[in-house]
């Protein structure tokens, strides 16, 4: 459950690699997710190393890997292909080619449905899967995200809190919780969640810190407070982030509108 709620450090600390093939896959995938790219050097040859290397290339170098994925005996390739297709924006293909043979794959199909802005279909997919695996973390988390997309913030917040109690805090869960608080106008609670998320993200090698920073900027802006320090941190991490592109486009649009109005 910790892997699917973003608590990669928890997976690693639990020594999952010594508990069988599937836990070992999650262990090495967690190391990849927090940027420890050399971790695969110590991975046992019994694991699908080629596909783990592809995951590493996808997560840490942003490479397109869909066409390079090869079948392996553990069906890790199916999971990897679905993630790759979703991250590359091919949501329809992800839905069509992902067999819902496990809770995790059903969660990925629901994720693709949400990307296509079909929250009701995603919800039905998750309800069907939860009827068979009601305690599955990946399904519960994706249901919370679906509830957020539908504006059901109280229900989502309750589910996120339950997941945190079961599997520990993670930047993923804390950002989701902060969004719920933010949408309900609870700026102080949202800020607390985001500060925790930033601390944990830093402990996990700084991966996905940009998401927490952008949410913190949104929180501070809505609360009418100064957010420049978080913009500076975001610029330091990724000066080419879409946030700055959007700001620049908005500024150019305003300049154009001002220019046109001054001609009248």
Strand content: under 5%
Overall average residue pLDDT: 90
Anisotropy-based shape: globular
Individual helix count: 14
Count of beta strands: 0
Task: Specify the oligomeric state.
Answer: single chain
Content-based structural category: mainly alpha
- Rg, Cα atoms, Å: 20 Å
Order of helices and strands: HHHHHHHHHHHHHH
How widely separated are the two ends? Answer: 62 Å
SSE topology:
Elements: H1 8-13, H2 21-33, H3 49-61, H4 76-87, H5 91-97, H6 103-115, H7 119-130, H8 137-149, H9 153-167, H10 171-183, H11 187-203, H12 209-222, H13 228-237, H14 242-263
Helix pairs in contact: 2-3, 4-5, 4-6, 5-6, 6-7, 6-8, 7-8, 8-9, 8-10, 9-10, 10-11, 10-12, 11-12, 12-13
Structural account:
The protein has 264 residues and is an all-alpha fold. The protein is built from 14 helices and no strands. Helix 4 runs antiparallel to helix 5. The longest helix has 22 residues, at 242-263. It is globular. The N and C termini lie far apart (62 Å). The model has no long low-confidence stretch (mean pLDDT 90).
